[in-house]
Amino acid sequence: MCGIVAYVGQKEALPVIIKGLKRLEYRGYDSAGVALLNESGLSIYKKKGKVSELEAHLDTFSSLNSKIGIGHTRWATHGEPNDVNAHPHYSASEKFAMIHNGIIENYEVLKTDLQNKGYVFHSETDSEVFIKFIEDIHRNNDCSLEEAVRLALHKVVGAYAIVIMNIEEPDTLIAARKGSPLVIGVGEDEYFLASDATPIIEYTNKVIYLDDYEIAVIRQNQLQIKTIENVETHPYINQLEMELEAIEKGGYDHFMLKEIYEQPRSIADCMRGRLDASSGRLVVGGLRDYMNKFQNAQRIIITACGTSWHAGLVAEYLFEEFARIPVEVEYASEFRYRNPVLNENDFVIAISQSGETADTLAAIELAKSKGATIFGVCNVVGSSIARATHAGSYTHAGPEIGVASTKAFTAQISVLTLMALKLGYQRGMIAETRYMELLHELETIPGKVERALQLNEQLIKIAEIYKDARNFLYLGRGYNFPVALEGALKLKEISYIHAEGYPAAEMKHGPIALIDEEMPVVFIATKDSSYEKVVSNIQEVKARKGKIIAVVTEGDTTVKNMADHVIEVPSTEEAFVPLISVVPLQLLSYHIAVMRGCNVDQPRNLAKSVTVE
Ligand code: F6R
């Protein structure tokens, strides 16, 4: 939530920052702004709306040359999206400018204090309070800006990644973080800062992930990092493996479509090096040191939000079926405040694409404090969750830029499937021959997803028919119940059509009242252990004249005779079906949203990385 970019070096800062902000726009797009420093002073330019609107605004200024600058793209927390609340914010003297990603929880107390001292506030943001608070400390203590930041950070409560420019030190950026991500790109005589590595990758692959409670003082050719206790640290320089093409659209109209189409590859990448069915080899590297804990866990608790929580629900079926360990799947936001009963025999799996979700991070900290072992399933390398967990496995889906999660979901399920099979086998719950059968089938999944993608033309036609529907119901059972939830979430978040997912059998306990000839009902009715039951549920909808769109297994004839539309996906093991059955639902949502003129990559009110609770 909120993207920040900064640059100091030999280049023109503005183009680097604007390009970076565009890459980070998925984090929020309520407003955008930059601050630049040159002979004419420290100037801020900001605008409500997308980075492109800021760009158009900047075109009206002639000389913006600067070798140092900061930029921000906002997802509004305090104060509505408008020009005034946009970042950067000046300090009272306008000598400092700051960008901030996060939330300062005690900002009202600080603001009242500052107002009593005569400070005036122009915006409704906590961030303006933050920089004015820093300046107040700077004035009162007659200290350096770095020292003022350090003292301020001891007093603020909340989360932040900040970068500050100072008119009196025109070659220096001061950055700090707690709770919100901040990556420093290390170039030749230049430094880049950003909320994630995507704005940095085209300039350098050397990055430092700033840790919580660290302050960096960055000049063109000098970087110093200290803790807020003033102890110098010696940061580790990571080599990024990300390729530039991975963060570009590559000929697709939208990132979401590109990412849907990447799934055969991303699932294969997730399994690469971990699974070799011919030799029966299944290695989940991250588990190595924790296998004992995992195998002997009395309970597996999965915690996540949104789509990642849906992947967790699929994993509940997987772990219980294959490993016979009880599983609970928890919304991180509920879990963290529920005083849950937890102990050192619990194995907690935290799932997160971004690795930055505030609620998931808080749930991890809580579980850690109770002695549980925490395993992370994250996509973003070096993210906060990846670093906060005891161990973990990356999903290797590559950067996911579309706000609606697609390839991250199937990659999460892929990792969790590998974990469940490994655990089940180690615990002696899966016989050797069955295990080999499952491994062989798992290897065929990328090819089957490829085939599911060939349904695109058919889904465009279905989308055309239902694009103006006001409601949708998604129904599935067993492994396809989380898929129904995910299908509904995909549709509502990008097309703004109200959609609900339900276990198919629950329909008659309420939602059936909604069904009439106007209501499209998407059934995920693949041939599995609950197929016959789902067929009965389809009959019930048909009897009430609902429109039936059914995802079925190739060759199905029973449902064909009942449904208005059937979408045939390749058959596979019941446990692996979600990896395939979700694909047509992703495509259906995508096409409906495009036909309705929605911005599928940046749906309203959403942000990809939810760093506030
Ligand atoms: C939906 C979506 C969100 C995320 C959720 C958790 O398409 O993307 O529901 O799944 O915000 O985010 P991560 O996985 O980054 O923790």
Name its key features.
alpha/beta; Rossmann fold; binds fructose -6-phosphate; 6-stranded antiparallel β-sheet; 613 residues; 8-stranded antiparallel β-sheet; Glutamine Phosphoribosylpyrophosphate, subunit 1, domain 1; 3 domains; 26 strands; globular; 19 helices
Write up what this structure looks like.
With 613 residues, the chain is α/β, with parallel strands linked by helices. The chain folds into three domains: 243 residues, Glutamine Phosphoribosylpyrophosphate, subunit 1, domain 1 (4-Layer Sandwich), CATH 3.60.20.10; 195 residues, Rossmann fold, CATH 3.40.50; 151 residues, 3-Layer(aba) Sandwich (Rossmann fold). The protein is built from 19 helices and 26 strands. The protein has an eight-stranded antiparallel β-sheet, with helices on one face. It is globular and about 80 Å long. The model has no long low-confidence stretch (mean pLDDT 95). Pfam families: GATase_6, SIS. GO terms for molecular function: carbohydrate derivative binding; glutamine-fructose-6-phosphate transaminase (isomerizing) activity. It comes from Nitritalea halalkaliphila LW7. Keywords: Aminotransferase, Cytoplasm, Glutamine amidotransferase, Repeat, Transferase.
